[in-house]
Amino acid sequence: MTVANPAAHVESFFDKDTSTFTHVVYDRDGGECAIIDPVLDYDAAAARTSTVSADAVAAFVRLHDLRTAWILETHAHADHLSAGAYLREALGAKLAIGRGIVGVQAHFKKLFGLGDEFTADGSQFDRLFDDGDTFEIGALHGRVMATPGHTADSLTYVVGDAAFVGDTVFAPDTGTARTDFPGGDAAALYGSIHRILSLPPDTRLFLCHDYPPDSRRPMAHSEIAAQRAGNAYVRDGIDESDFIARRRARDATLGAPRLILPALQVNIRGGRLPAPQANGVRYLTIPLNRIGEA
Protein backbone atom coordinates (compact mmCIF):
# COMPACT_ATOMS: atom_id res chain seq x y z
CA MET A 1 0.00 0.00 0.00
CA THR A 2 1.33 3.44 -0.93
CA VAL A 3 1.46 5.87 1.97
CA ALA A 4 0.79 9.53 1.14
CA ASN A 5 3.62 11.96 1.67
CA PRO A 6 2.71 13.81 4.90
CA ALA A 7 2.41 17.57 5.11
CA ALA A 8 5.68 19.32 5.84
CA HIS A 9 6.20 21.47 8.90
CA VAL A 10 8.11 24.63 7.99
CA GLU A 11 9.65 27.32 10.18
CA SER A 12 10.97 30.40 8.37
CA PHE A 13 13.61 32.90 9.47
CA PHE A 14 13.96 36.30 7.78
CA ASP A 15 17.31 38.09 7.56
CA LYS A 16 16.37 41.74 7.20
CA ASP A 17 19.84 42.84 6.09
CA THR A 18 19.75 40.70 2.93
CA SER A 19 15.96 40.16 2.65
CA THR A 20 16.62 36.41 2.74
CA PHE A 21 14.45 33.62 4.11
CA THR A 22 16.01 30.51 5.61
CA HIS A 23 13.54 27.65 5.99
CA VAL A 24 13.60 24.62 8.28
CA VAL A 25 11.40 21.82 6.94
CA TYR A 26 10.74 18.85 9.23
CA ASP A 27 8.45 15.87 9.61
CA ARG A 28 7.67 16.13 13.35
CA ASP A 29 9.14 17.20 16.66
CA GLY A 30 11.86 14.72 17.50
CA GLY A 31 12.18 13.79 13.84
CA GLU A 32 14.37 14.93 10.96
CA CYS A 33 14.77 18.25 9.19
CA ALA A 34 16.51 20.03 6.36
CA ILE A 35 17.72 23.63 6.46
CA ILE A 36 17.35 25.53 3.20
CA ASP A 37 19.47 28.57 2.23
CA PRO A 38 21.06 29.49 5.60
CA VAL A 39 22.64 32.93 6.03
CA LEU A 40 26.08 33.79 7.38
CA ASP A 41 25.94 37.35 8.71
CA TYR A 42 28.41 39.73 7.07
CA ASP A 43 29.27 43.32 7.96
CA ALA A 44 30.60 44.61 4.64
CA ALA A 45 32.10 47.80 6.07
CA ALA A 46 34.21 45.89 8.59
CA ALA A 47 34.57 42.68 6.54
CA ARG A 48 33.46 40.75 9.60
CA THR A 49 31.36 37.58 9.69
CA SER A 50 29.15 36.30 12.48
CA THR A 51 26.80 33.37 13.04
CA VAL A 52 23.92 35.09 14.84
CA SER A 53 21.35 34.19 12.16
CA ALA A 54 22.61 30.64 11.75
CA ASP A 55 22.69 30.12 15.51
CA ALA A 56 19.01 31.11 15.73
CA VAL A 57 18.20 28.41 13.18
CA ALA A 58 20.31 25.85 15.06
CA ALA A 59 18.57 26.79 18.32
CA PHE A 60 15.18 26.03 16.74
CA VAL A 61 16.47 22.67 15.52
CA ARG A 62 17.71 21.75 18.99
CA LEU A 63 14.58 23.05 20.73
CA HIS A 64 12.46 20.69 18.65
CA ASP A 65 14.91 17.81 19.07
CA LEU A 66 15.46 17.51 15.33
CA ARG A 67 18.22 15.65 13.55
CA THR A 68 19.42 17.67 10.58
CA ALA A 69 19.64 15.39 7.57
CA TRP A 70 20.42 18.04 4.96
CA ILE A 71 21.61 21.59 4.39
CA LEU A 72 20.12 22.42 0.99
CA GLU A 73 21.26 25.31 -1.20
CA THR A 74 18.92 26.32 -4.01
CA HIS A 75 21.88 27.85 -5.90
CA ALA A 76 25.12 29.76 -5.37
CA HIS A 77 23.71 32.99 -3.98
CA ALA A 78 25.02 36.42 -4.94
CA ASP A 79 23.16 38.42 -2.31
CA HIS A 80 24.17 36.73 0.94
CA LEU A 81 26.93 34.55 2.32
CA SER A 82 25.95 30.97 3.06
CA ALA A 83 26.20 29.44 6.53
CA GLY A 84 26.02 25.99 4.96
CA ALA A 85 29.48 24.85 6.05
CA TYR A 86 29.01 26.22 9.56
CA LEU A 87 25.69 24.43 10.12
CA ARG A 88 26.94 21.27 8.42
CA GLU A 89 29.66 21.07 11.05
CA ALA A 90 27.49 22.20 13.95
CA LEU A 91 24.59 19.85 13.23
CA GLY A 92 26.23 16.92 11.47
CA ALA A 93 24.28 17.32 8.23
CA LYS A 94 25.03 16.66 4.57
CA LEU A 95 25.45 19.75 2.37
CA ALA A 96 23.87 19.63 -1.10
CA ILE A 97 23.39 21.83 -4.17
CA GLY A 98 22.67 21.31 -7.87
CA ARG A 99 25.27 19.79 -10.18
CA GLY A 100 25.29 23.06 -12.11
CA ILE A 101 27.49 24.48 -9.35
CA VAL A 102 30.48 23.02 -11.20
CA GLY A 103 30.03 25.48 -14.07
CA VAL A 104 29.45 28.35 -11.66
CA GLN A 105 32.64 27.44 -9.80
CA ALA A 106 34.64 27.35 -13.03
CA HIS A 107 33.42 30.80 -14.03
CA PHE A 108 34.15 32.45 -10.70
CA LYS A 109 37.42 30.60 -10.13
CA LYS A 110 38.71 32.49 -13.15
CA LEU A 111 37.18 35.81 -12.07
CA PHE A 112 38.67 35.64 -8.57
CA GLY A 113 42.03 34.29 -9.75
CA LEU A 114 41.80 31.19 -7.55
CA GLY A 115 44.70 28.81 -7.88
CA ASP A 116 45.16 25.07 -7.62
CA GLU A 117 43.93 25.14 -4.03
CA PHE A 118 40.38 25.50 -5.38
CA THR A 119 38.96 22.68 -7.49
CA ALA A 120 35.87 23.44 -9.59
CA ASP A 121 34.30 20.00 -9.33
CA GLY A 122 31.63 20.39 -6.66
CA SER A 123 33.64 18.41 -4.12
CA GLN A 124 33.02 21.15 -1.54
CA PHE A 125 29.51 19.66 -1.20
CA ASP A 126 28.43 16.23 -0.01
CA ARG A 127 25.95 15.73 -2.82
CA LEU A 128 25.28 17.29 -6.20
CA PHE A 129 21.64 16.93 -7.22
CA ASP A 130 20.29 16.38 -10.72
CA ASP A 131 16.76 16.99 -11.95
CA GLY A 132 14.47 14.24 -10.69
CA ASP A 133 16.71 13.09 -7.84
CA THR A 134 15.00 12.18 -4.57
CA PHE A 135 15.99 12.35 -0.91
CA GLU A 136 14.44 11.69 2.48
CA ILE A 137 13.83 13.87 5.54
CA GLY A 138 12.48 11.39 8.06
CA ALA A 139 8.96 10.53 6.91
CA LEU A 140 9.06 13.24 4.22
CA HIS A 141 10.01 12.47 0.65
CA GLY A 142 11.90 15.16 -1.25
CA ARG A 143 12.20 15.63 -4.99
CA VAL A 144 14.57 17.85 -6.95
CA MET A 145 13.44 20.05 -9.84
CA ALA A 146 16.00 21.83 -11.98
CA THR A 147 14.66 25.37 -12.37
CA PRO A 148 17.36 27.38 -14.19
CA GLY A 149 17.01 30.91 -15.47
CA HIS A 150 18.11 33.10 -12.60
CA THR A 151 21.31 31.04 -12.60
CA ALA A 152 22.24 27.85 -14.39
CA ASP A 153 22.46 25.89 -11.13
CA SER A 154 19.09 26.88 -9.65
CA LEU A 155 16.98 24.13 -8.07
CA THR A 156 13.56 23.83 -6.46
CA TYR A 157 13.13 21.30 -3.65
CA VAL A 158 9.64 19.77 -3.38
CA VAL A 159 9.09 18.28 0.08
CA GLY A 160 5.62 17.03 0.95
CA ASP A 161 3.19 19.85 0.18
CA ALA A 162 5.96 22.50 0.14
CA ALA A 163 8.22 23.71 -2.66
CA PHE A 164 11.33 25.74 -1.88
CA VAL A 165 11.75 27.80 -5.02
CA GLY A 166 14.95 29.74 -4.37
CA ASP A 167 15.17 32.91 -6.46
CA THR A 168 12.96 31.78 -9.34
CA VAL A 169 9.80 33.58 -8.27
CA PHE A 170 9.13 36.23 -5.64
CA ALA A 171 5.89 37.39 -4.01
CA PRO A 172 3.25 38.20 -6.64
CA ASP A 173 3.61 41.97 -6.27
CA THR A 174 7.39 41.88 -6.81
CA GLY A 175 7.57 39.29 -9.59
CA THR A 176 10.63 37.18 -10.31
CA ALA A 177 14.39 37.00 -9.98
CA ARG A 178 16.70 38.77 -12.39
CA THR A 179 18.31 36.87 -15.27
CA ASP A 180 21.45 38.90 -16.05
CA PHE A 181 23.93 36.88 -13.99
CA PRO A 182 26.36 34.46 -15.70
CA GLY A 183 24.29 31.51 -16.85
CA GLY A 184 21.04 33.42 -16.47
CA ASP A 185 18.41 33.17 -19.19
CA ALA A 186 14.99 34.81 -19.27
CA ALA A 187 13.42 32.16 -21.51
CA ALA A 188 14.69 29.41 -19.23
CA LEU A 189 13.31 31.24 -16.17
CA TYR A 190 9.88 31.55 -17.79
CA GLY A 191 9.84 27.81 -18.40
CA SER A 192 11.07 27.04 -14.89
CA ILE A 193 8.42 29.19 -13.24
CA HIS A 194 5.66 27.58 -15.26
CA ARG A 195 7.01 24.18 -14.29
CA ILE A 196 6.72 25.22 -10.64
CA LEU A 197 3.22 26.58 -11.20
CA SER A 198 2.16 23.22 -12.64
CA LEU A 199 2.67 21.56 -9.24
CA PRO A 200 -0.50 20.52 -7.37
CA PRO A 201 -2.55 23.64 -6.60
CA ASP A 202 -2.32 23.19 -2.82
CA THR A 203 1.51 23.31 -2.92
CA ARG A 204 2.97 26.06 -0.76
CA LEU A 205 5.76 28.00 -2.50
CA PHE A 206 8.43 29.03 0.00
CA LEU A 207 10.43 32.04 -1.18
CA CYS A 208 14.13 32.71 -0.69
CA HIS A 209 13.67 36.49 -0.78
CA ASP A 210 11.03 39.11 -0.32
CA TYR A 211 11.42 42.82 -0.99
CA PRO A 212 8.05 44.07 0.25
CA PRO A 213 6.56 47.51 -0.23
CA ASP A 214 5.93 49.52 2.91
CA SER A 215 2.29 48.39 2.90
CA ARG A 216 3.02 44.80 3.96
CA ARG A 217 5.37 42.59 5.95
CA PRO A 218 7.83 40.13 4.39
CA MET A 219 6.08 37.09 2.94
CA ALA A 220 7.72 33.69 3.55
CA HIS A 221 5.51 31.74 1.18
CA SER A 222 2.96 32.18 -1.55
CA GLU A 223 0.30 30.09 -3.26
CA ILE A 224 0.17 28.86 -6.82
CA ALA A 225 -3.25 30.44 -7.40
CA ALA A 226 -2.00 33.83 -6.19
CA GLN A 227 1.01 33.65 -8.51
CA ARG A 228 -1.11 32.69 -11.50
CA ALA A 229 -3.61 35.44 -10.80
CA GLY A 230 -1.37 38.29 -9.80
CA ASN A 231 2.37 37.87 -10.37
CA ALA A 232 3.66 41.10 -11.83
CA TYR A 233 5.76 39.27 -14.47
CA VAL A 234 4.35 35.78 -15.02
CA ARG A 235 0.65 35.79 -14.21
CA ASP A 236 -1.65 33.91 -16.55
CA GLY A 237 -1.98 35.75 -19.85
CA ILE A 238 1.64 36.94 -20.01
CA ASP A 239 3.36 34.93 -22.74
CA GLU A 240 7.03 34.08 -23.00
CA SER A 241 7.98 36.90 -25.36
CA ASP A 242 6.30 39.51 -23.15
CA PHE A 243 8.03 38.10 -20.09
CA ILE A 244 11.45 38.11 -21.74
CA ALA A 245 11.05 41.71 -22.91
CA ARG A 246 9.91 42.95 -19.50
CA ARG A 247 12.50 40.94 -17.59
CA ARG A 248 15.39 42.12 -19.75
CA ALA A 249 14.25 45.73 -19.58
CA ARG A 250 14.06 45.57 -15.80
CA ASP A 251 17.41 43.79 -15.48
CA ALA A 252 19.08 46.55 -17.51
CA THR A 253 18.23 49.02 -14.73
CA LEU A 254 19.62 46.93 -11.85
CA GLY A 255 22.98 47.41 -10.22
CA ALA A 256 25.16 44.61 -8.90
CA PRO A 257 23.99 43.05 -5.63
CA ARG A 258 25.67 44.69 -2.64
CA LEU A 259 27.41 41.51 -1.46
CA ILE A 260 28.04 39.77 -4.78
CA LEU A 261 31.85 39.69 -4.52
CA PRO A 262 32.21 38.36 -0.97
CA ALA A 263 29.15 36.13 -1.32
CA LEU A 264 30.25 34.23 -4.40
CA GLN A 265 33.77 33.65 -3.10
CA VAL A 266 32.30 32.00 -0.01
CA ASN A 267 29.33 30.28 -1.61
CA ILE A 268 31.21 28.44 -4.36
CA ARG A 269 33.19 26.95 -1.45
CA GLY A 270 29.99 25.65 0.15
CA GLY A 271 29.95 28.45 2.71
CA ARG A 272 33.58 28.03 3.74
CA LEU A 273 35.79 31.07 4.15
CA PRO A 274 39.06 31.23 2.19
CA ALA A 275 41.97 29.48 3.91
CA PRO A 276 44.18 31.66 6.12
CA GLN A 277 47.38 32.99 4.58
CA ALA A 278 50.81 32.71 6.20
CA ASN A 279 49.99 35.51 8.65
CA GLY A 280 46.88 33.67 9.86
CA VAL A 281 44.46 36.11 8.22
CA ARG A 282 41.77 35.15 5.70
CA TYR A 283 41.36 37.42 2.67
CA LEU A 284 38.66 38.01 0.10
CA THR A 285 39.61 39.13 -3.41
CA ILE A 286 38.05 42.20 -5.04
CA PRO A 287 38.51 42.10 -8.84
CA LEU A 288 38.36 45.65 -10.16
CA ASN A 289 36.22 46.72 -13.13
CA ARG A 290 34.91 43.22 -13.84
CA ILE A 291 31.40 42.95 -12.45
CA GLY A 292 28.86 44.19 -14.96
CA GLU A 293 30.88 43.30 -18.03
CA ALA A 294 29.42 40.94 -20.60
Descriptive overview:
The structure is a single chain. The chain has about 290 residues and is of the alpha/beta class. It has a six-stranded mixed sheet, with helices on one face. A six-stranded mixed sheet has the order 10-11-12-13-14-15. Strands 5-4-7 form a three-stranded antiparallel sheet. The N and C termini lie far apart (about 55 Å). Helix 4 packs across helix 6. The mean pLDDT is about 95. The chain is built from seven helices and 15 strands. It has a single domain, classed as Ribonuclease Z/Hydroxyacylglutathione hydrolase-like (Metallo-beta-lactamase, Chain A), CATH 3.60.15.10.
The Cα radius of gyration reads 18 Å
- List the domain count as a whole number: 1
Number of E-state strands = 15
Q: Total helix count?
A: 7
Q: What is the mean predicted local confidence, pLDDT?
A: 95
Helix content: 10-25%
CATH architecture: 4-Layer Sandwich
Indicate the structural class: alpha/beta
> According to CATH, what is the class?
Alpha Beta
Order of helices and strands: EEEEEHEEHEHEEEEEHEEHHH
- Biggest sheet: strands side by side, in what order? 1-2-3-6-8-9
Shape from CA axes? globular
